[in-house]
Amino acid sequence: MEMVETGKLDAAVSEFKTLLTLVPDQAAVHFNLGNALRRLGRNEEAAACFRRSLDLEPDDPQAHYNLGNALTALGRIEEATACLERATRIAPTFADAHFNLGGLLLSSGDHAAAAQRFRTVIELKENHFSAHLQLGRALIFDRHGKQAIPVLRSALAMAPDNADACIALGNAFFEIDRFDDAVVAYRKAIDLEDDNPDYLYNLGNAYYRQSRLEEAVGIFQRAAQLAPANAAIFFNLGNAYHRMGMMQRAADCFLKASELDSTNEEAAHMLAAMTGRTTTSAPKAWVRRLFDQYSDRFEQHLTEDLGYAAPEQLADALKSVTGPSPVFSHALDLGCGTGLSGLPFRAMTRRLTGIDLSENMVAAARKKQVYDDLRVDGIIEFLSATTKRYDLVIATDVLIYLGAADALFGLIGRQTSKDAAMVLSIEATTDADYVLRSTGRYAHSDSYIHRLARGNGFAVRSCLPARIRKEAGHWIMGSLFVLKKEAI
Asked: What is the pLDDT of residue 329?
């Protein structure tokens, strides 16, 4: 052991191996040989030694722990997790085993289980800084930013100048939309490590969410200088330029992001929008992120700033077709958002189901208590899986994120009853069936909607021109449709 402690690891390995020729069934010798091999980075051999030690003493928690750590280093996470769980079952107060197990669970995405392990560590060692930090991160990943804040403040009380803890606290504030507080935490982290591009990226995102776009651009530019191969930085820099109306700079950034990461569908979508190339649909990740970020200010911005009134206009158009007091059995609101689109239809349907990609939007809709059922799902995925039939389908501002609508209309035709109605709004174009605009949204032609309706058993009962929303102070024109199933 003296040679291990003094760093003479090769000599220690040789001595332990010699000793094993004399006492091959001594668990402690196998265990110590494994430790020496681990310190040399020879994890496969170390794991074999720990396994042999456990063959001889199967209830040794330290051997299970060390084997778990060796397997973690080898990337054999499932086996490592099992070893660390065994160590904690044998020795429930083994804080290091709980901590390392929490780390594996966190990295594998089981955030709730990871949080419980870190809580156990804190119960055993209340001043364990890293357990507080990791618990905070686990809570943030599990969308419990509010719970993470006091945990991370405790971590910072132990280590006030720890930049990672400052960033984590900023992330907790960011997760619950307290962007002013997030900025303070991020800036403290940057004061401690001003050359960390990830920290700058987080601060830029907070400025962006505050609409402090010039400051966001400056921070993203600094981050890009430090990490010129980071596609996410260029993508968000492009988003900031886009909101500022600096379209060529935005296009350059989206191009750079696409070149750095060919799998970045969001950057590819916005690059197509900037360069006049029409794609078939917006990436789900782009739509989800857009509305997850937008949920806290969605209704006020849309109705007060952009003059949006499509749901009420569609409800009136529907009544002009059906009569003033229609009654539907089961309505389906596609892309329900915060519930703004469902409200005008609530009184005319016995049951109302809402579907949206954005978890934050659905959470806001749930507070309104407008819907009988709410689902976080893609529209195509939901319609493909459901066995229910609907007699009213609401699609306000759905097609603007879905260029090619053939599959959507086919599924709606299949999942609606013989006397069903459908209401929808579009941004209008006469250039083609659909075009992708520089906003990242799609416009459709009236003739395309007429053709889709006829091809899927619907008749167009009403098609009205409408001012859909304002963009940069100018109205975007569109159309409001009411469709009715035709008797076959």
From this structure: 97
